[in-house]
Amino acid sequence: MTHNPFLDTSTVLLADIVTRDTWQVRKRINAAMVKKYAAIYGAGTSMEPIRLARVDSVLMLIDGAHRLAALRFLGETQTEVIVTPMKEHAAQWAAASANLEHGMPLKSAELREVFRAYIATKQHHAGRGRVKSFAEIAKDIPGKTRYSYRNWMMKDFPEVFRKFYQGSGGEGHSHGGLDYEPRDQQALDLQAIEVHLRQAAALARTLPPALRRTVAKRMEEAHGAVMR
Questions:
Q1: How many CA atoms lie less than 13 Å away from 140 in the CB half-sphere?
Q2: How far, CA to CA in Å, does 23 sit from each of 133, 163, 187?
């Protein structure tokens, strides 16, 4: 990775950028948007740098899934990015909330994924032992009313609702400690890695022997990087 001190950007390999499907609130990549961005890049016009979070030593995608897909479509191997060191929960919320800032409007189901990330990363904790009201949540996540967020809380996080909001008139009670059961992100990551490895192995079997040996060599190099 190289750093540009004048633009506060860095150049990284696309292969080093990790995307987590569970962090992407949009249900799918929009092919028309990817083609549009590919045309912009192809014409030599720059776009806003992709935003990444450095979680420990891993570069996680925060904002720019369509730009990343466009660059890969064009066969590019590297791009300029803005990297911010973050804790994992902060990075997860940054990835979800980035969709509120720009891009195509979120569908209701996608906005619900933003809300789920909001609660999962404890953005509803207001500090000093209190939780935010549904009116405050609606200000944090524009697009739905406080009543919609109340209904989603009841359905998606019933234990959180009973503990902090039931009988409070939507204002929220004081809290203490962890109020939800976090998903096993390591298990999800392992599952994603296994899927990618199986896909890579299947694709490699379509190659001639010489190229298969190249793939095997790259996998040995990857093994060394994993075990460092």
A1: 22
A2: 25, 26, 14
Instruction: In whole angstroms, give the CA distance from residue 111 to residue 102.
Output: 13
* Helix 185-204, helix 209-226: angle, nearest 10: 160
Whole-model pTM? 0.66
The rounded distance, in Å, linking the Cα atoms of 221 and 176 is: 46
Counting Cα atoms < 13 Å in the Cβ hemisphere of 76 gives 19
Amino acid code (one letter) for 11: T
> How crowded is residue 121: how many other Cβ atoms within 10 Å of its Cβ?
22
Task: Give bridge partners of residue 74 from the DSSP assignment.
Answer: none
**What is the per-residue pLDDT across 173-219, written as a single tens digit (0 to 9) for each?**
444 444 444 556 677 677 777 777 777 777 778 888 888 888 888 88
Written as one string, the DSSP assignment of 59-91 is EEEEE-HHHHHHHHHTT--EEEEEEEE--HHHH
Contact criterion met (CB below 8 Å) for 19 and 65: yes
Cβ contact 170:133 at 8 Å: yes
Taking the C-alpha atoms of residue 92 and residue 118, their distance in angstroms, rounded to an integer, is: 9
Residue type, 155: K
Q: How many CB atoms within 10 Å of residue 194?
A: 10
Q: What is the mean pLDDT of residues 56-64?
A: 91
